[in-house]
Amino acid sequence: MTIKTKSPEFISLEEAAKMKEGTRITFVPGIQAIYAEALKNICYVKKIKIIRTLHPFMGIDKKTGKDRQAKLYELTSQTSLPTMFHNEERPRNVWIEQLALAEEIGSSDSINLIPDDFQERADMFGLCAIILGEDGLVWNMRILSDGQLARKYGYSDGASSKAPSKMAEIIKLINLQLKKQEEKGSKYLIGDKISAVDIYWSTISMTILPASLEIMPKTKQNEGMLFFFEANSKIPEIKEVLSDRILSHRDYILKTYCETPAVLGGDPV
Fold this sequence. Notes:
Blueprint: H1 13-18, E1 23-27, H2 34-45, E2 50-54, H3 70-76, E3 84-86, H4 95-105, H5 118-132, H6 137-142, H7 148-152, H8 157-183, H9 196-204, H10 223-233, H11 236-241, H12 244-257
Helix pairs in contact: 2-4, 2-9, 5-9, 9-12
């Protein structure tokens, strides 16, 4: 089944760099690069109009013999996806800085995603760190098997062998937190209203618990990635700790607060 979504426009990195106004975020058309998808969802909730910018691929261009990401590195001193530009401010490449910027520039009538209560804020950022940060869920997912991206994240046979159990431990902790919140009558990971961690986790959880086509459409560009995500859900350590609770929370957050089906561009299947 093909889920039709509108096809967004993308501008070049060079065009984005020259702009003096607007919020530009780098994407790969047709692919739900998970940090970029999460940031897109954050911006959607904050009612920030984004300008989609083409993120250059890794490797050497066969025609020119040059590094495809040289311009990105020149602009940002790094090559990770996504890069976030806003007006003439410095680029943001780390999720915590991107979130802070989104909270600052979001519409005045949008939801606050960073709690005012400092205990809730500490709890939220703590959960975000084990999902998004070094040695967290995504980090360990990227070293499950060897490859160019895995090497960037410090792949080794030893680290890879420990990755499934680390991922499972994080999923188990999230499930327990959701259970505690349910007992308090809350649908959210922290407090009694949505926060950034709900959006980050719901988006990231698609990497270990496949989403329906009503949430994440299939494209020619993301078929391989969707296959990889489905394979993750079948890893014994991970499969054992996945729950209906995680699925229900994920679908509720994405369908209630985010744009679904996700708008990716690319070529629908």
